[in-house]
Structure formats: C-alpha cells, structure tokens
Amino acid sequence: MYIKRTVEETILKVSQSFPSVVVYGPRQVGKSTTIEMLFADKYKKVTLDDRDDRLLAESNPRLFLESYGWPLIIDEIQKAPSLLDEIKINIDEQRMIWLKEGKGRELMYILTGSSRFELQEGIAESLAGRCGIIDMASFSQSEKYGYDNPYFEPKIETLRLREKQGRKYRTKSEIFRDIFMGGMPDVCTGISERDIYFKSYINTYIERDVMSLIAASSELQFRNFISILALRTAQELHYDEIARNSGIDVRTVKRWISILQTSGIIYLLQPYMANISKRIIKAPKLYFMDTGLCAYLCKWPNSEMLENCAMNGAFFETFVVSEIIKNFYAHNQNPQNKLFYYRDIDKKEIDLLYIEGKSLYPIEIKKSIAPTKPTKNFDVLAKYKLNIEPGIIIDNCNKIRPINEKAYTFPVYLL
After folding, report:
1. pTM for the whole structure
2. What residues make up the domain containing 111?
3. Beta bridge partners of 267
C-alpha cells in the first residue's frame, strides 16, 4: 500500500524549475517509491545497486548516459559520482539546443541518493545551478494517519487550521507507541517486524554507507558509538564527553557525527545567538530523526517501558523536533534558517525558537498535560530586541487553549 507523501508537491514544483532534481534521504525512507509514483509512467529508471549498471557507469559514464537517454531516474547516484560531470555536460548541451530552438527547459534527470556525505561536494561542483535539491525523511505522523500536513509555523491562526482537519485525538500512550515504532515505511505499513527491520537496517547502513568512510577495523566501535549517541538524543552535543565514553578521539567523533548528520540519521539543532552575549551555550543539541531507530538502539523492548523510563522526556522532545524538521523538509524549507534553541549559563532554557524576520516565537515541549509554569523563561528573550510573539507549549493536551498572554497549549497529535 502506497501512502501519499507531503513532499510530492515539492518535488513536482522543483522539477518545473531545474533540468535535474536530487532527492536526498536516509536509506529506506521511500525516496525511490515516491519518485516512481510521480514519474515512472514517463521516465526510464536505472538503479546503481545493479552491479552491471554500476560498473558501466563507473568505467564509461558517457556510454551509460547515451544507452539510457533521458528523461531518466538514477537511483543510488552516490555509487557512481563520476556520472555527475557527464550529466552536467548533457544538461549544458541540451540547454543550448532549447535556447536555439526557443523551447522551454524540461526535467532531464531525477537522482536519488542515501549518502549525502559522499555526494554533496560533487553536486556542488558539477550541478550547481542545474539541480534542485530536496531532503526527504521517514513518515511523519500526519502521513501515517492520512492527514494533510501544511507548513508548520507557530502562528496561532495557522495552527488552528489543523484543528479543523478532524484529526483524532491520540493519548499519551498512543503517542509513545508512535515514538516506539518510528516512521520507517516498511515498519509503519506492517511489511516488516520492527526489531528484525531495525537490526537489518543498521547492518545495511553500516555496510553500504559507512564502511567506505571509516576504517574496517572501526566497525564495532562505530556500532557502539551510534548506540551511545542514541542515549543522548535531545541533549547538548559535547564531543569530548562522547569521546571518553566511546573510547575514540575527539577528531573521530566529529567525523562520525558528520557522517550521521549528512546521511540524515541525526539532526543538530543550533543555539540562537545574535552577537549580544557570550553567556549563551554554544553546543548544538542532537536529535535522532527517527525515534523508532533511536529506541531500538537504546534497547527499549516496548512502548510501555519507553513511556515510563527516565528518557521519556527526551524521546518526547525528539519526536516533536523531528516531526517539525520533517515538515520543513517536505515543504522545501531549511530548518537551519528558522529553528534554534536557547540555553544560557544560568540554565534558563527554551526548547525551540522559531525565527521569522524580526519576530520570534518561543516553543516549549512537555510530555505531560498542563505543565507547571511552562512560560517562565520566555522573558529572557527580551534582550534580543525582536518582536516576541505568543509562543506555544506542545504537550499531550486535547485542544489549543490560551495559557496566558504569552502562550497557547498545542496538542502534539496535531503536528
């Protein structure tokens, strides 16, 4: 069963503006399936998982492209980066033909890749100005339950539109079942049993995407490292502390963090700074993009234990942040431009700051219902001389309600 993805509209829109489109995302989040649903009736497809096609693409990229022609879908493009230069040549040649004949441009190539770490330099050098880039993540809860997923912005008039969609309220236990299962399509649709799936997923990810980037002797250390990171989701990232616990040096930690970040496994949320104070903590916060994978790595056996464990707040926060980031990706927005967090050395903290122009929207994330004094730290934002708009408290409540003049409650099931 195919589940409609919010990103479909973005892909179609971007495809009208560039002769090529690149769709990035972790393995098995549905990139190829979505592309096939949108373009398979008009486009040929080749996957570089096929050994013979990969060998031809690597040894003779020009012959490979001549053999398949265009329009063409190329899956797992990171396995033959030498194709990028030839794709550039083909696009430039075709552009001149369109120009001479007075024709509009067409979409020639759709490329998908699961390892941005290997690709981004080649894309930047070869296809700059010639391709639209789209990030894709695992299912959001809106997609899982068949709801429209409009662009998230914490303006109360926009958020109230979500209440009118008729979404069904989900209890705290139901939300934690969603957190435990995660958003991987094969798990959500029941194709694969959760634990078997994630065991295979980690093995495949390490074998295909990581082993080419780290020393073969480091495989066991990397497996231990990613599990240690999972235990630190929704925490500030301190490289030296992780290095001590992992038994590796700080330089290696930074490189491995970069691999996980660029392959979409984790997201680093940056602190908000406006050059007015050195009292702001500068470390980013680390979040896993799929809570099911994170829970598996932490070895939580079921959603009930996850809901009642000491990490339940961290997992709830990870779920909320990852849902918002997935929404940004689906609408072709860069979360790094608008999403931050606040924490100073006095330990005053705000989970999320949404910045738009000269307006700032504070967001707190609480796993409970009706948390005590959720807006207590909002006043620290006055020093930024921005328009401090009413914020939101994302929790397990059942409807949007004003708390005070500073904030509204916002139900997590409406994300």
Report:
1. 0.94
2. 7-135
3. 287
